[in-house]
Amino acid sequence: MSDLQEFQPVIVGFLCNWCSYRAADLAGTSRMGYPATLRDIRIMCTGRLDPAFVLKALRGGADGVLIMGCHPGQCHYEEGNYKALRRVALLKRTLAQLGVEPERVQLGWASAAEGVVFAEKVAEMTEQIRALGPLRWGGNLADKANGNGTLAGVAAMDEEVVS
Amino acid sequence: MAEEKVGVYICHCGHNIAGTVDVEAVAEWAKDLPNVEVSTDYKFMCSSLGQELVEEDIREKGLTRVVVAACSPHMHEPTFRKACERAGLNPYLFEMANIREHASWVHADDPDAATEKTKAIVAGAVSRVVHHEPLDTLVVPVNEKTMVVGGGIAGINTALEIANAGYPVVLVEREPSIGGHMAQFDKTFPTLDCSACILTPKMFDVGNHPNIELMTYSEVENVEGYVGNFTVTIRQKARKINIEDCTGCGDCWERCPKKVVDTDYEAGLGYRTAVYRPFPQAVPKYPVIDVETCIYYDTGKCRACEKFCPTGAINFEQEDEVVMTKVGNIVLATGYDLFDCRRIPQYGFGRLANVFSSLEFERMTNASGPTGGKIVLRDGVTEPESVAIIHCVGSRDKNYNEYCSGICCMAALKFAHLIHEKTNAEVYNCYIDMRSAFKDYEEFYNRLMEEGTHFIRGRVAEVTDAARMPGEEGKLIVQVEDTLIGKQRRVPVDMVILMAAMEPRWDSVEVSHQFGIGCSAAGFFTEKHPKLDPIATMSDGVFIAGVAQGPKDIPLTVGQGAAAAARVLTLITTGEVEMEPVRATIDEARCSGCRICNNLCPYGAIDFLEEEAVSRVNPALCKGCGTCVAACPSQIITGAHFSYEQIMAEIEGVLWDMGNGQLVPDAQPVTESA
Amino acid sequence: MPDDNGKYTYYPGCAAKGSSAAYEMSMLAVGEVLGMNFEEIDDWNCCGATEYFSINAIPAYSLVARNLALAEQMESDQLVASCSACFLNLNKTNKYMGKHPDLDQKVNRALAAGGLSYDGGLTVRHLLDVVVSDVDQELIAQKVTQPLSGLRVAPYYGCMVVRPDETFDNQEYPMTLDHLMATLGATVVDFPLKAHCCGGHMTQISEDVAFELIRRLLHNAAEYEADVIVTLCPMCQLNLDAYQNNVNRRFGTDYNLPVLYFTQLMGLAFGLDAKELGIGTEIVSANKALAKIGQVEEAPRKKPARRDKKALPMPGEM
Fold it and tell me: B82-110: per-residue pLDDT in tens?
């Protein structure tokens, strides 16, 4: 794994169709620059966010997951974002027990008019994940042996496989 | 699953994508993705040639899935879905990869990173599309009745256009009469037509049209349903007058002893009685009793109107009526509120007597206004010898509203002209820029210059009565920087008119939530697309028109009113609308009846069937948010087009290069999607 | 917000110990009545007034920051200044050090030379802000034993107390001092130049400019038939009071308007002894004006003919 200074985080994004996805589109039409670290996936509403998606993303090699939806009170489907709020809160606690830093999974809000908010959030989270270092939870064991981003959970998996 | 044949098309979009992303390399690389049969790049996928390329490949190469990597799905997903359909492929077997708004346009400074991100997004789309299912749109009938909210010039126009086409309209207006702000104006620029003269015939038509049900003094309380099938609840507030008996004779308001300042129609410049008709040309012509100020409701005494009414139409006990009706489409044309000039204390509005707001001045110059059309000072008698008109009060101001209200420059010129016409006063227009953009506006500006109006280009710092020099005693002094001569000026005048901003209605955010649409940061309703679709909103079946969408003049408002009518008529005349098949379905065979999903649905679309002890989704009410899909502990709710398999596949796809360690194989869902 | 003991750290400024001793006297007297504790900073230094910042910024900020550093060591985190210029300098320095890390660094380096440092823990307030925002106005009304009825007061804020930070009052047309004076029972005069400049140090630099500015204020207050001008800044008080005769000579006018501090009027309304409040130290004597309290009925003002049938209603009228 390369020097941590050049570590480019990989963040998987879940954007809701009505607000944050359009905010990302607006950031695009306004030609706002932000780090190319976010790989986004469209869902209709953050209420669709199954915690399994977050786990899949982290295990699949993402260093962080960003979920963005409509502002509380403005969900296109009334309340989906409140459910996302509850699910993500519980999920973060669970992940923390598995050794994944809570900052790796973040929930944000951006309305369709807030391209700036979206771009700034991606930039901010990129730096935060960069500081945390790679997670590479489900990655190649050989990589882990180089001592990068090991966490209690991964170490436990290491033991399991080795033993 | 049978082997799928995926066609991948990477669009250049001219330079927009190809200028940053190495599209040829991506197309080449995509050939090796699983299930890809064809992978190519092309200059403009959305062009007819581009679409034909897709259609040909479907027919000739037997493609079963298509991925187009180009702009946002919000832009062209419908375009390519139609192309697939024409070639005989179900339109939902298509996926769009957004590599323009989400890659080339935002990572132009790092082409390598942009190309890598593009690959990830394309891989995600290819991985996902293989799991797509053919879906059929739900076709629902469209109720031919339309509800128009707001009876100003926009709403009136919309209502008339639809009604003239032969379809029923219910026009809901909050005030006791339709007409809106235009009914308050004196003359309209640039033709100086009398505002009431051009408006009242339309108001009359609305009042008498067989197809228009006019509900004034009414407000929408609730909206439910979806495009073509809304159920709306309207509260018709009690006028306290039985309109079947009322002849509009006027005895009641002539006898009413309680006089109050009319802050609505007269903009606070005149008076009305507690029982009143808003203005002589009001439609409908019936009066209304203002419960807040009526003596009877306060003390139980008076009842003069009741005594003098020749037909006994007064009914103090009349209650509000709540009406429910079904409509197919809704048009919001709720207009604007005027900026409250008291928010800028240094201009003295509300403190210095002879500072007037633009609406106050409209009422003043209006021949049927409180001064009979005479231009006078606050004492109601003295004619001013000099008037200053201040532009941009509350507009173009970081402290209040950043936007330009668009019409105030022209209205200010109109005022200047009227003052020249009716008095011998000197007129000073203090402006920042002169915005006279449209037909005949610039010519009107030239005319005003020829009439001898003094134009001072500068922002007014303050309006004060503190005289400092001879000639200022007893006057209002306008302190302004004249930027064209580079000097500070103190202009002593008798009267100041403030061109106040157009602001969204005080409850526009609440209303937008009620109708399921969005509001911009400033508070105006959000249109579907600012350039190409200023009439539609994010909610199908709800349209916006007039200043509710943003500041504009009367011609634009009228145009938008007609445009909204045209959109509605399209839906009505086709008679049906296709609804996206994005919705949830419960596999009842496997449902354990835990009912966790039941209370999660914000639309109450999930019913619990007692006998079978399973839950069922009502497809007509389901809007496809997916909240229940995520919540089902058995994972037996399918979210069409956003299913568990599809999204998991997409996640795998976007992380194609991260060496997905399969240390623990993915738990397979209990049910296979059919 | 102040702590429960109504404790404030007090920065007097040079004038408070000299030309505006009356301000400090009356402030302390009134503070006692209202249960406010002012703890003066030990070994405070001059704030640099208005000129230093334009000459050499870093030393100017450091000079002010020394006071902040000393104040930070005291009990309360609310630092109160009675002089508007001192308030502005302390507030500005506090805010800018917080906003600009390089300024913070440089200033703290300077402070370190004196064994001090400032961490940004203070909130800087003006005395008027504290009196109108922290003290319950009901309490003030209760303590009024001798309402100032009949006294026409022109509230003069000066230019610095509400600018550039709009914290406790409107920048263009502040009203808190007006309301306070009304609570004391005085007749508050609508004084449009209430937030206009008094000339400040221009009295030393360019008399022409300063005297004209002072003349405007006096003229306006006199026009509105004010008996007394009430102020909250020693500089404003000095300019309007000490230079009033100069202005009269220069312009051939005969203004005779006493200029008092708002705390002095508060003290009078609370029934305190005039001498205790420093009344009598002013150059334009306030005796005649103060004699009106309770003696004279409110002088009728030129009101615009409102009851007239023809007159149009004012905005906001019911």
Answer: 999 999 999 999 999 999 999 999 999 99
Place of tokens 């445009």: B563
What is the architecture, at CATH level 2, of domain A9-138?
Answer: 3-Layer(aba) Sandwich (3.40)
pLDDT at A145 over 50: no
Give the pLDDT of residue C6.
81
What is the predicted pLDDT for the residue at C301? Answer: 57
User: What CATH number does the domain located at C7-128 have?
Assistant: 1.20.1050.140
Name which of C312, C317, C318 to mutate to probe chain B: the one with the most chain B Cβ atoms within 10 A of its Cβ. C312
Restricting to C residues 294-313, those with a Cβ less than 8 Å away from any Cβ of B are 304-305, 308-313
Give dist(CA B477, CA B460) in Å, integer.
10
Q: Name residue C143's amino acid.
A: K
Determine the distance in angstroms separating the CA of B256 from the nearest CA of chain C, rounded to an integer. 17
pTM over 0.90: no
| Number of domains observed in the structure of chain B | 5
ipTM: 0.85
- Summarised one tens digit per residue, pLDDT across range B468-482 is 888 899 999 999 999
Query: Which 3-state string (H, E, C) describes B193-243?
Result: EEHHHHHHHHHHHHHHCCCEEEECCEEEEEEEEECCEEEEEEEECCCCECC
B186 lies in the same domain as B288? no
Q: Residue B111: is the preceding peptide bond cis (ω within 30°)?
A: no
The pLDDT value recorded for residue B353 is: 95
Q: How far is C-alpha B366 from the chain's CA centre? A: 30
For the domain spanning C141-291, the CATH number is 3.40.50.11810
Place of tokens 């006019």: B214
Last residue of a domain, one of B104, B129, B154: B129
The whole-angstrom distance between C318's CA and the closest CA on chain B is 6
3-state SS of chain C?
CCCCCCEEEEECCHHHHCCCHHHHHHHHHHHHHHCCEEEECCCCCCCCCCCHHHHCHHHHHHHHHHHHHHHHCCCCCEEEECCHHHHHHHHHHHHHHHHCHHHHHHHHHHHHCCCCCCCCCCEEEEHHHHHHHHCCHHHHHHHCCCCCCCCEEEEECCCCCCCCCCCCCCCCCCCHHHHHHHHCCCEECCCCCCCCCCCCCHHHHCHHHHHHHHHHHHHHHHHCCCCEEEECCHHHHHHHHHCHHHHHHHHCCCCCCCEEEHHHHHHHHCCCCCHHHCCCCCCCCCHHHHHCCCCCCCCCCCCCCCCCCCCCCCCCCC
Structural domain range at position B543: 146-233+323-335+505-576
Kindly report the number of other CB atoms within 10 A of residue B284's CB atom: 20
Q: Find chain C residues with C-beta within 8 A of B462's C-beta.
A: 172
Q: Please name the chains neighbouring C, where neighbouring means 3+ C-beta pairs under 8 angstroms.
A: B
Find, among C160, C220, C244, the residue nearest to C195 by Cα: C160
Q: How far apart are CA B395 and CA B621, in angstroms?
A: 43
How many C-beta atoms surround the C-beta of residue C185 within 10 A? 18
Q: What does the pLDDT read at residue C295?
A: 62
What is the distance between the alpha carbons of residues B26 and B9, in angstroms, rounded to a whole number? 10
Determine contact: B415 vs chain A, CB below 8 A. Answer: no
Distance from CA of C212 to the nearest CA of B (A): 10
Residue in C213, C283, C285 with CA at minimum distance from that of residue C250: C213
The 10s digit of each residue's pLDDT in C41-54 is 999 999 988 788 88
Chains C and A are touching, with contact defined as 3 or more CB–CB pairs separated by less than 8 Å: no
Structure-token pair, residue B570 = 């399209």
Strands (E), B294-370: 321-327, 329-332, 336-338, 355-357
Residue B63 in contact with residue B37, Cβ under 8 Å? yes
d(CA A77, CA B538): 12
Q: What integer best gives the mean pLDDT of chain B?
A: 93
Secondary structure of residue A79 in the 3-state scheme: coil
